[in-house]
Amino acid sequence: MIVGSAVAALLVATIIIGVVILNTLRAQAENEAYQECMARYGFSADAPPPVVGEDSQDEHLNAITTAAEACLQD
Question: CB atoms < 10 A from the CB of 18, how many?
Answer without folding.
Answer: 10
